[in-house]
Amino acid sequence: MPDAAPRAGSGGLDDGGPGPAPAPVPADGLPAAGAPTPDDAGLPLSEHGAPGEDRSGAEEEEHPGGGAVGQVAKIRAVLRVRDFRKLWLSMSLSSFGDWLGLLAITATATTLVDGYMASNLALSGVLLFRLLPAILLGPVAGVFADRFDRRKTMVVTDLFRFGLFASIPLVGDLVWLFIAQFLIEVISLFWTPAKDAAVPNMLRKDQLEPANQLSLVTTYGITPVLAGGVYAVLNTSDGRLSQLLPGLDQIALALYLNALTFLVAAFVIWNLPSISGRRAARPEAPQGSFLGSLKEGFSFASHTPLVRGLVLGITGAFAAAGAIIATGQFYVSGLGGGQAAYGLLFGAVFVGLGLGIALGPSIAHDLARERVFGVAIVGAGIVVLLMAWTATLWMALLLVVLMGFFAGNAYLAGFTLLGTEVEDEIRGRTFALVQSLVRASLILSLATVPIGVGVIGQHQVDVGVLTLAVTGERVMLFVAGLLAVGVGLFAYRQMDDGRPVPLLADVLTALRRDTTARRRLAGGGVFIAFEGGEGAGKSTQVRRLQEWLTGEGLVARTTREPGGTALGGKVRALLLDPASAGLSPRAEALMYAADRAQHVHDVLRPALDAGEVVITDRFVDSSLAYQGAGRTIPMDDVRSISRWATQGLRPDLTLLLDLPPEVGLARARGRAAADRLESESLDFHQRVRRTFLALAEAEPDRYLVLDARRSPEELAAAIRTRVSVLLEGLPLQQLPADVPVPHSRRGGDHVVQTGSTPHLHP
Ligand SMILES: Nc1ncnc2c1ncn2[C@@H]1O[C@H](COP(=O)(O)OP(=O)(O)OP(=O)(O)O)[C@@H](O)[C@H]1O
Ligand SMILES: Cc1cn([C@H]2C[C@H](O)[C@@H](COP(=O)(O)O)O2)c(=O)[nH]c1=O
């Protein structure tokens, strides 16, 4: 089986590199590569990586945020990461070579023997020799990938594959073909988990899904078609070829070409030190024996619910897929179709798979991938159950596309989760285990299902006035559907770690792109952030908004960053004190993050969990703008520490008060002496302003940008209008009628009750 190209991409330095100052925002609203990016987005309520995470080589690249920007832009952004791009190109080349090699090897096998029977046996021998080693040696290869430098493993295995492919035409013997084929497959077993396990270290977690999309589409969509085309060209130009290269037939040439792709891949990978990841810095092997590592891998997979669900879900889905392949011929002829219809049905699976992989993430949006995985497998199973009852060919074709769509979603979600959720130390073994089980389940169902079909045979069953045709292939399809539904439910139960949001409501709100509704479903309140430069009028509007909401009978809490907690107050004093002039940018960023972590923990989360409206004067965007753009700390680092500090909490709405910095600074200076940040240069504050605007532009649904030169009254009215839309009909905490309007900036400890938000009066 051709190796999948990188399921998750490698990272690396962006071509542009992190520049000292942000590039201007281009027409698409996103900063150029290397510039601070408008992304705090795409991370709904989940933690995406911690600071200090080893992603050697991963630097700045454009990462557009929410759904507005779309999946294509995310893939483009992933491709801008230089190391990933290089690895992806070399994997694509190897994948192309692998498909070409498969075509050439199967052709060689049939030409090295005489007779129909012998040709068929040679062909199935080749396929068996490709599948068997994984079952036997996969887990061992996984241990290898976890214990040794993955880059060296990949380079050595690529060199071996180069030699072995080149040797097939040189030796020209069927026995050697089998041996070489077996050895190539054994060697590939060591290469694949090394690559699968290495690449998630090199990209941000949220980049793995687009990277996987790209890799899967390349490996199963583009390269096989290209290889088929090249093989056809080689075959049709045979005469001219032998004139050009005497003694070289088209099959040999295809095999040499294939060999060459591995040589190129070895060279490219050798020059990508980031693949070594942590091993480069910490070369010593993990403690314990080889056997101990093997046992540890099995024990990890069987005792970790998420991995258990993933492994069983993927294995079961492939067993069901094997059953569909095995019954395909009978199924199609039962529907009155011939070989052409079978070909169509086969193609329909790939159309569906491609659609699922390409469109799945945009459709699922921010639905947890654990849920997508289980739901997609159950969906595929239900479609297979329907296929077992289908009476027409066109209906069967439609269902097969749908089944492929669900399967594509499950496959992408499953591999992305393996990359993001399994620790580096054990990832090689986990990928290898999946690889072995997938192949074993495929072989098992390909071998046993036809027996089942034969044993059941064909029967006519009278049900009242109806006569039903009960055939072996339909019964086996039905069993495959039940199996898929069963493993999907099992996987769902294993992986759905007690999310408070009911599945159906979660799916529906995700389809509607309603992220605020998603948190409300989980019982949360509403989180509103004010952002903007110095003196933009944030504090003024925060106060006005709270007064209005309280007047409308809602519990509205105001807070701020830095300084929203007692501890944060001390941090704020240190941060803003002009005497802290020597503070390094990194220390500054960490202090803001520390203030934020305490703020989320002590104030924001509890208030939201109690169903309050929480209004904060500044949040994560300020760090992206001031520390990212202002201090020119790589945006990715600021994003990482912010996510870590907030555990992914994002505002439901951000109100950006936009103002030329010279106007805002004049206002602020009229109020008090300039603090440490206000004393920064105009250029600094202009970078801050541009970044706020770029962030808002990337997620227009979640931001309201207001010209802060308007009067306080006008601004307050516009804010009330937008907020009343946001709060309409939500089950928020309400003040009892007799509670006086609080004047405290922090809100108060009121006796509250929950109820639907009354009609608000902006
Ligand atoms: N819309 C407005 N037009 C003119 N002046 C305003 C407006 N809003 C607020 N101000 C004044 O500008 C000054 C700064 O306002 P405010 O403290 O609300 O801004 P801020 O964004 O919170 O500032 P900082 O971020 O520096 O704390 C105050 O003196 C305030 O009265
Ligand atoms: C949250 C946050 C704030 N800052 C800066 C922005 C301001 O200059 C001060 C906060 O004071 P203000 O009263 O809100 O104007 O701190 C920052 O640099 N990074 C942050 O994350």
TrEMBL record:
Occurrences of domain Thymidylate kinase-like (ranges): 530-719
InterPro entries: MFS_trans_sf, P-loop_NTPase, Thymidylate_kin-like_dom, Thymidylate_kin_CS, Thymidylate_kinase, TM_effector
Annotated transmembrane regions: 87-109, 121-145, 254-272, 310-334, 340-360, 372-391, 397-419, 431-455, 475-492
GO annotation, biological process: dTDP biosynthetic process; dTTP biosynthetic process
Biased composition (Gly residues): 9-18
Key word Transport present: yes
Gene3D superfamilies listed in its UniProt record: MFS general substrate transporter like domains, P-loop containing nucleotide triphosphate hydrolases
Keyword entries, A-Z: ATP-binding, Cell membrane, Kinase, Membrane, Nucleotide biosynthesis, Nucleotide-binding, Transferase, Transmembrane, Transmembrane helix, Transport
Molecular-function annotations in GO: ATP binding; dTMP kinase activity
Chain intervals with Low complexity compositional bias: 26-44
Primary subcellular site in the record, as a coarse category: membrane
Function, in words: Phosphorylation of dTMP to form dTDP in both de novo and salvage pathways of dTTP synthesis.
HAMAP family named among the record's database cross-references: Thymidylate_kinase (MF_00165)
UniProt protein name: Thymidylate kinase
Record lineage: Bacteria, Bacillati, Actinomycetota, Actinomycetes, Geodermatophilales
